[in-house]
Amino acid sequence: MIVGIVGGKLQGVEAAYLARKAGWEVKIVDRLPGVPAADLGDSFAQHDVVLEKDLAGVLGDVDFIIPALEDDSALQSLARWSRKTGTPLAFDPQAYRLSSSKLKSAQIFKIIGLAIPVAWPQCSCPVLAKPVRGSGSKGVHLFHDMDALKKWLAPGFSSADWVLEEFIDGSQHSLEVVGKPGNYRALQVTDLEVDEKFDCKRVSAPSRLSLNRIAEFEQIALKIAAAIDLHGIMDVEAIYSREEFKILEIDARLPSQTPTAVYWSTNQNMIELLGNLYVPSPIDRPPAGGAVRGVVYEHVQVCGHSLRFYGERIMSEGGPLRLQQSFFGADEALTNFVSGSDNWVATLVFCGRNSQRAWEKRNRSITRITQHLGIKDVVDSQPDVPSGRSGSRS
Question: Cα separation of 212 and 87, whole Å?
Answer without folding.
Answer: 41
